[in-house]
Amino acid sequence: MQTKITLNESDIPTQWYNIIPDLPEPPPPVLHPGTHQPVGPDDLAPLFPMALILQEVSQESYVDIPGEVLDVYKMWRPTPMFRAHRLEKALDTPARIYYKYEGVSPAGSHKPNTAVPQAFYNSQEGVKKLTTETGAGQWGSALALACALFGLECEVWQVAASFDLKPYRKIMMETWGATVHSSPSDLTSAGRAILEADPDSPGSLGIAISEAIEVAAQDPDIRYSLGSVLNHVLMHQTVIGEEALKQMALIDEQPDLLVGCTGGGSNFGGLSFPFLREKMAGNMDPTVRCVEPAACPSLTKGEYRYDFGDTAGMAPMVKMHTLGHDFVPEPIHAGGLRYHGMSPLVSHIYELGLVEAEAIHQVECFEAGVLFARTEGILPAPEPTHAIAAAIREANRCKESGEEKVILTALCGHGHFDLASYGAYLAGELVDYDYPDEAVAAAMERVPVVAD
Length: 452
Ligand SMILES: *Cc1c(COP(=O)(O)O)cnc(C)c1O
Prior knowledge:
Number of strands: 15
Radius of gyration: 20 Å
Distance between the termini: 53 Å
CATH architecture of the largest domain: 3-Layer(aba) Sandwich
Number of domains: 2
CATH class of the largest domain: Alpha Beta
Shape: globular
Structural class: alpha/beta
Bound molecules: pyridoxal-5'-phosphate
CATH topology of the largest domain: Rossmann fold
Strand content: 15-25%
Strand order of the largest sheet: 1-4-5-15-10-11-14
Helix content: 40-55%
Largest sheet: 7 strands, mixed
């Protein structure tokens, strides 16, 4: 009875997979926030290094991973895949549940898979400092680590709700050499405008992105780095799915269902895109499902239209499932899932019918996370408890039907810095938030209408 499916260092993928050329239709173009015209590489150059801009629009199916990046990946990759025998037994399900565990990275999540190449390409182009946003702190930690490894400065705006709730993430970022601010801050005009309207703003990823972009855009030595949403970020994360394909093949299994939590879509895309390639080629036929919080349901309830990536409207406009760029989600504990939009690529693939989506409330997710911890031992981050809850729903359906489905999910991070959230759950203090239809309808009215 195998529990851990491991690979050798020589099995680390040497190329990232770009799903775009394999799709039946290309995703819609990115637009300039002011002119609403498609952006060219030069428009993005104040924010990103050229190597990443070219990856963002690449039409190549595979991009070589630089040796310097592979050397860092070897610090924790390949990551293990586990069969959740004990969870299956507790559920009394005939389903077989597997999880690919990304919490073994030094930062504790999948985020270093893209932080490392982003810091590398920026250092190659002579950039001195990277700015970024972070929610729960997973992305800020990953970028702080990557900047330390490639000799860059790192400045992070952390969403206020998480800054207050998760103080040890800040210390971790500072230990790796980063500077961390609570967002909204009085350091930027975007932050000051929000504070003026609401001095107690809990912040949002959209606001923190505006602050980080504003600072980067003003200084040629500074670039901005985004930990999710963009095509190149999802591409970097495909090392997860490429390894998982090899691991499933080793034990002669094929997934019937892939589930992943979706904040901006990067761990989900990273796991699922290589499997979708195989599905589109007719080699397997898994159902692929996104799971999002009921309090921030961009795929299941958002509109598919052009919107700004940030709250202040400085970031390019992308066509995505959105709740409106100034929608501030309730302060749920899965800080990494509190983004008003969804990756344009995941949104496009959802519109094409290649993946499905469901939304789950946070109490059910924490219940799933606690059951997972008590059976599998690992204490999951609040974000992947959404995927675990969805896997458990499916396993329970299999118990009813007797189907022996193979379920695969990404356990994209551990929850060791999220213990205050578990504490609140264990004390019975967590509440479910519903999607406030009126607030979102109002936010959608403030999104400029852009003709396709
Ligand atoms: C950032 C983060 C998320 C949300 O981002 P995605 O791009 O959707 O993956 C989810 N889980 C963890 C552990 C994260 O750090």
